[in-house]
Amino acid sequence: MDEELLSLLTSLVEIETENPPGDEAAAANFVYDWLESRGVSATLVEEPYPDRPQVAARVGDGEPSVVLNGHLDVVPAGNRDQWAHPPYEPTVRDGRLYGRGSADMKAGVALAMLAAVEFADALDAGDLDGSLVFHAAVGEETAEPGTKTLLERGYDGTYGVVLEPTSLRTATSAKGLGWYEISVGGDPSHASRPDEGNNAIQNARLVLDALEAYDEEIRARSDSLVGHPTATVTRFEAGTKENVVPESATITVDRRFVPSESVEEVDAEIDALLSDVAVEHDLRVEWTRTRVYESAAVPTDGDIAARFRDAAAERADIDPEPWGIRAATDVRNLVNDAGMDAITWGPGSMAQAHAYDEYIELSEVEAGYDILRAALRGLFEDGGN
């Protein structure tokens, strides 16, 4: 494997950037210094958070302009005793690089950094038509406005590539995600006198039953690229003490939605569902949506998608059929907020994202850079036509 690429990826993975709490600053400074040392003028963008800078750069000033977007934050490593390879001590074994963020998505960030350096001279000199915009964003894992802010500050373009792990397949659609927190009420009493209270856990069972039926109902809907919607209970919290009948219970629901569904429509469905349960069983139920990633979709035959599909098929024998990613990504900001023709594409398997002993196949990283260079060069040489 190319030594510069391996060294860069290793350096990124060994910088701990967990979110929460949002420790991207050290990595942002590393990326900034690395680009500057190789002649690419970069900017530390201290918005939306002064203590969590992002990195942006633009090389060239022509059209077409292509945004390469990556995020610096990773999910927490969790119980480190569960890792055979320490999460922030990158380990190469059997052709794989192990470490938190190796797949999601520091390999993608590394490819974007190398591409910015490789194409800088030709784009700046006008030997190639176009411009390349680089993003190293914060807060993607928690739906914060990192990428959105970079776009608002002018780091946008005609086309975009969000370098999430897709096993080098080209995604023109991405599911949306809403997290809902549902509070179910009760009345406390001593557990020796349970009939004097109103057990919130028992009440929550009725809500859970309704959510299970709702999940089954919406799975009947379908999108040809990203599959069906889901509503999954991911957390349940109740009780304060072993001998106290709980007065409240909290249910967290992960609602994945397809491009034909809007977050407003999903909100209305959740509200109607819970209102019906509350009225039928005389319950106190409240809900709030704590986070949202909008869905996004662009035409499957768009120029950027076709170029990446063709390059991946030719150079790595990747399935060229139209496809969508079932995870939520920052592509929503490029498509919905900036009106760009943008895809999600990158090396690594989504099955490794957020997993213990996360890893990426180094051969796939190398193939990914070959595909990225070919697709970008073709786009710039043809002027986006």
From TrEMBL:
<dbReference type="Pfam" id="PF01546">
    <property type="entry name" value="Peptidase_M20"/>
</dbReference>
<keyword id="KW-0479">Metal-binding</keyword>
<keyword id="KW-0862">Zinc</keyword>
<feature type="domain" description="Peptidase M20 dimerisation">
    <location>
        <begin position="173"/>
        <end position="281"/>
    </location>
</feature>
<dbReference type="Pfam" id="PF07687">
    <property type="entry name" value="M20_dimer"/>
</dbReference>
<dbReference type="InterPro" id="IPR011650">
    <property type="entry name" value="Peptidase_M20_dimer"/>
</dbReference>
<dbReference type="InterPro" id="IPR050072">
    <property type="entry name" value="Peptidase_M20A"/>
</dbReference>
<dbReference type="InterPro" id="IPR036264">
    <property type="entry name" value="Bact_exopeptidase_dim_dom"/>
</dbReference>
<dbReference type="InterPro" id="IPR010182">
    <property type="entry name" value="ArgE/DapE"/>
</dbReference>
<protein>
    <submittedName>
        <fullName>Acetylornithine deacetylase</fullName>
    </submittedName>
</protein>
<dbReference type="GO" id="GO:0016787">
    <property type="term" value="F:hydrolase activity"/>
</dbReference>
<keyword id="KW-0170">Cobalt</keyword>
<dbReference type="InterPro" id="IPR002933">
    <property type="entry name" value="Peptidase_M20"/>
</dbReference>
<comment type="similarity">
    <text>Belongs to the peptidase M20A family.</text>
</comment>
<keyword id="KW-0378">Hydrolase</keyword>
<dbReference type="GO" id="GO:0046872">
    <property type="term" value="F:metal ion binding"/>
</dbReference>
